[in-house]
Amino acid sequence: MSTEHTETVPTTPTRAGVIGVGAMGENHARVYSELPNVDLVGVSDHDTDVATEVADEYGTEAVDLEELLDRCDVVTVAVPTHVHYDLVTTCLEEDVHVLVEKPIAETVEQGRRMAELADERDLVLQVGHIERFNPAVRTVGELIDDLDVISLEAERLGPPIDRDAPGNVIFDLMVHDVDIVGSMLEDTPDALTAMGTEDGRYATATMEYDDVVATLTASRVTQKKVRKLSVTARECFVEVDYLEQSVLIHRDSYPEYVNDEGQKRYRHESVVERPRIDNGEPLRHELESFVESVRTGTEPEVTAEDGIEALEAVQTIDGIVADDEQHAHGQELRPNERDRGEQEHDQEVEAE
């Protein structure tokens, strides 16, 4: 798809729909209903009662998939990952632009076929890596090109959201930070190591990018919700809080001993900058960007290729964690095409 504006932006409302209205999909329906020059024309879900309830809440209709695609210009696909491929392919074949929640698909090959189909039909296929649209992340993204980065460290931690629900923090949570780190460094990792628990509720990975090291931790067993990123650069140290949408930049840090009434006292001082951030809901920014790409015929901010690269990395991390013999050893990055039919789509709104 061209990255240049090739057509006049339409003045008629963009017709939007949502497929899958669980916790995440319902939020997509809410935001579409609030966006200017966008009409939420319907929602669809295998649970018709849930679909009707969400439709009533946001002033639209619950319809079957075929009718929804007849009505829509764009749709969000917010369903379990194992049905992404079939549903997204169906939408694209009906010439409907798609935002599909992360991860893009169950396998890298499925993701590539989806991307090829979207390209063949000149349609937007955007992947729902919502943290790209967090105002704090965007602020750091503007800074990082001017920094000599040494390392990045991401923590995405919290308590269980449902003790009985299946899931894997590598695919549900860590995938966000894999994508953020890759987008900031504009690169894919050369090698990585990883460790985690057998139940899939805690994992840590170290990713190597030439002369930069990124350490990522994801947890559903931590009794505090944490969403943080830190950047160590030769010029400064940057702290990002995703939840607070805040950024702190520490510069000119120095230690010294001072004389305090005859006593030697140690102190450490630094200059702390707090950049101004235009706070806002990341999901709203994400959907505004998606609709704008559709209207202008431009490449989406998070492309299918971005989603495929993130999926390759988390599959490799998961493969290392699953293999006891590899826990203590590095492994060259390679796609792991293991079938993950048991994987469930994360229903948590990560940026809230």
Automatic annotation (TrEMBL):
Transmembrane segments: none annotated. Pfam families: GFO_IDH_MocA, GFO_IDH_MocA_C3. InterPro entries: Gfo/Idh/MocA-like_OxRdtase_N (IPR000683), Gfo/Idh/MocA_Oxidoreductases (IPR051450), GFO_IDH_MocA-like_dom (IPR055170), NAD(P)-bd_dom_sf (IPR036291). Residues 324-352 have a biased composition (Basic and acidic residues). Signal peptide: none annotated. Residues 318-352 are annotated as: Disordered. Residues 15-129 form the Gfo/Idh/MocA-like oxidoreductase N-terminal domain. Residues 162-229 form the GFO/IDH/MocA-like oxidoreductase domain. One of its GO terms (molecular function) is nucleotide binding. This is Oxidoreductase domain protein. The lineage of its organism: Archaea, Methanobacteriati, Methanobacteriota, Stenosarchaea group, Halobacteria.
